[in-house]
Design goal:
EC 4.1.1.23; 8 strands; OMPdecase_AS; 234 residues; lyase; binds cytidine-5'-monophosphate; 8-stranded parallel β-barrel
Length: 234
Amino acid sequence: MADLVVALDYKDAESAFAMARSLKGAAPWMKVGLELFVAEGPKVVSGLKEMGFKVFLDLKFFDIPNTVQGAVRSAVRSGADMVNIHALGGERMAKAAMDGCAEGVDPGQKPPMVLAVTMLTSMGAGDLPLDIAPDPSEMALDLAVKAEQYGLNGVVCSGLEAERIKVACGNDFICLTPGIRPASADAGDQRRVVTPAQAVQNGSDYLVVGRPITQATDPREAALAIVEEMEQVK
Ligand code: C5P
């Protein structure tokens, strides 16, 4: 069964913690992204862990291997259960990330999952600033196959390509899917969106949902409705 991850895209810890508190028991995972982490730092991760959540630290590292190694080491020391890098950084960067992960874990600590972002779900065909315009799903699949070869634990991908990635990389290779939109929700800046049911049907292991929950009139009810839709997929 897939897990729901709620994206806490807030400008301060107070707002993020208030939302997390209201979702206790409705979603097992919280995601800390760039806006919140840049404003508040590692205390947001430890605060959410103390509240009993699993934490995905979504900082999408993309730099030279040595810098990414250190960044992942620090991310792991924050206590995050899942961290990520960009698959486009290539083999040496990916392997440096795995080294940083191993260096950051305390003895006895379960190593966090290290995922690779394939293509951002906000990018459709034509959004890549390149004259050659590869199909986003093909590119995501290629990058996922490489990420698996480099020893990463899985990828961040749209629900549109999760099924093909599972076939190519094996069922244990994690697919985490943002760009989730219940049928009635506004896509906003996202482009390659799927419903919660479609994402689960296509094999996604984790569904990341932000605004359809955090901007709902009743966020807890919105989260529970998404979980119910996920559970209905056999
Ligand atoms: O509000 P919404 O549901 O669109 O939020 C999606 C979250 O997932 C955002 O925090 C965004 O940064 C993140 N994300 C994404 N696409 C990726 C990786 C992460 O939308 N490929």
